[in-house]
Amino acid sequence: MTNRLPTELLIATRNEGKVAELRPMLVELPLSLRSLKEFPEIDEVEETGTTFSENAALKARSYAEQTRLWTLSDDSGLEVYALGGAPGVYSARYGGADLSYDERIKRLLDELSQTGSDDRRARFVCVIAIANAQGEIINLSTGTCEGTIARAPRGTNGFGYDPIFVPDDYEQTFGELLAEIKEKISHRAIALEAARSFLQNQFSLT
Ligand code: ITT
Fold it and tell me: Are the CB atoms for 122 and 162 separated by under 8 Å?
């Protein structure tokens, strides 16, 4: 593993909702942030893992090897307790790759009501992986955010399943809450804070 200080960090996600949340949390670092959009020729990574950690590591390793840049990836998803943790790592593909999020949300609400369970608890999970320029994974950080599934979608903020997720201690969904609140309490915020402090400690980037 090299300890040479990186000057650039690739935010390796094709999900614009994630980019919008990750960037503001990383701008304080003295690193120039690069985006996958700058590398149109890059091969997409197949997410063959069965855990968030495996998929986050797969993405960080592959994009770092392809770009030779320090790389940060995010693998995340929604786990619904009454559905045995589904859709979990398959959140982005739940119900089929071609569904819109309105359709995916409707399907999830239907499945949950078909269980007949009153248990609407769910949690978002995020694992952030950092790979160095050689493609070695040097940090994995996990964040979770507990909450419940709303009866119907509400709000247009955020992305993905945000309109049906009500974080604990709030009454509004992530779709209704301000981005500033999600940036403080979300699974991604928690994982990213740990990843950021890893970078700061390891390389004294303050
Ligand atoms: P990349 O792999 O390119 O990062 P992706 O969208 O395919 O993009 P994932 O495989 O990690 O990423 O899938 C995560 C899915 O989980 C995402 O598409 C959303 O459906 C859901 N998700 C994760 N974090 C979320 C959040 O903060 N709010 C709402 N939905 C979220």
Answer: no
For 72-128, write each residue's pLDDT tens digit: 999 999 999 999 999 999 999 999 999 999 999 999 999 999 999 999 999 999 999
Q: Is the pTM of this model over 0.70?
A: yes
Report how far residue 76's alpha carbon sits from residue 69's, in angstroms, rounded to the nearest whole number.
22
Q: Is 1 inside a domain boundary? A: no
Q: Whose CA is nearest to atom 6 of ligand 1?
A: 15
Whether 49 is in a domain gets the answer yes
Within 6 A (CB) of ligand 1 lie 13-15, 18, 47, 74-78, 91-92, 124, 158-162, 174, 186, 188
Structure tokens at 178: 């301000």
- In the chain, the number of structural domains is 1
Q: Is 98 a catalytic residue?
A: no
The answer as to whether 3 is a domain residue is: no
Is residue 2 domain-resident?
no
The answer to whether 59 and 34 have CB atoms below 8 angstroms apart is no
Q: The domain that contains 75 carries what CATH number?
A: 3.90.950.10
Q: How far is CA 129 from the centre of its chain?
A: 10
| Separation between Cα atoms, residue 175 and residue 156, nearest integer Å | 5
Residue-number span of the structural domain to which 106 is assigned: 8-202
Token pair of 137 as six digits: 């994974």
